[in-house]
Amino acid sequence: MARTAGRYGFSVYPNLPPEALRARCLRLLGSGFSSMEALAAGELLHEAEFHAYAETLRAVAAETGAGLSVHLPTTDVNPLARNRRVRDASVEAQHAGLTWAAEIGATLAVLHPGQAGGASGQAAIRSGPAWAQACDLLQDLSAHGRRLGVELTVENLIGPREVVSDPDLLLELCEAVGLQATVDFSHALLAGGEPADFTRHVGRRLRHVHLNDTDGAADRHWPLGRGVLPVAECAAALTATGFTGTVVLEMDGPAEVVADSRARFEAAARSGKVT
Prior knowledge:
Layout lengths: L7 E5 L5 H12 L5 E5 L7 H18 L2 E5 L12 H21 L3 E4 L10 H6 L1 H20 L2 E5 L11 H11 L2 E5 H6 L4 H8 L3 E6 L19 H11 L4 E4 L5 H17 L4
Parallel strand pairs: 1-2, 1-8, 2-3, 3-4, 4-5, 5-6, 6-7, 7-8
Helix pairs in contact: 1-2, 1-10, 3-5, 6-8, 8-9, 9-10
C-alpha cells in the first residue's frame, strides 16, 4: 500500500491515455510532489478505461512510493436528494468510490456531502431534515471507510443549499460525526467568505486542502496567479493553524503549470506575497 500523502499533491483525472498519464504523474512526483489525488470516475468511463486508469495509478504509486487520496464522485450525484432514487444511487456511488480508493491503495477520501433539498442558508439547513440526513450519511460512509482503511474527509462547497458552504456548519458537522475537513480555498471565496478566515475557523478539524485559482464568479480550477484568490493570505492561514496535512493542487493541465502553481504558493508562504 502507498504511504500516507505528504505535503503537496496534485489532482489526477482520467482524461489521458495510460502512458501519457503515467508520464505526467512521474514528472510531477519527480519535481517535489509526494502524492496524487485521483477522481473516482467509474460511472463516467467504460470498464476497460477505468481499469487502465486504476492500474496506472497503482503502478506509479508502487514505483515511487507516492501517497494516494481519492476525490469521491461529484458528477450527477446528491446523497441528500429528496428523490429517493437519486439519493440511493448517489450513496451507492460514494460507497463504490471508497471501495475503489482502498483497491488502489489510497488512505484518504474527499466527499461532497450534497445539497439540502428545499432549504437555503445556514439556519434553515441546521434546523431542517437535511442536517440529520447528512450526519447519518457521514456516519455510514465513514464506517465503510474505516473498514477499508480509508479516512473520510468533508469538503466545503459553494451554494446556499450546500450543507457545508458555511464554516460554522462545516466545523459543527465534522465535530458531530468525528471527521476531519478538506478546505477548498476557492470554494470558500465563491461562497462569499474570506478563505483565510474560513481556514482559521475550521483549523482544529483541518486535514486536507484543495488549492486552485478562480475569477470569483465560478469554480474554474485555474493555475495560481490567473485569478483573484488571495494566495498569500491563504498560505499564512495554513501556517497559523499548524497545518500538517496535504495541499492538493486541484487543477488539470501540463505538469509544468501545476508545478509553477506549487512554487507560487511556497513563495507566498515564505514571503507573504505572491510572485
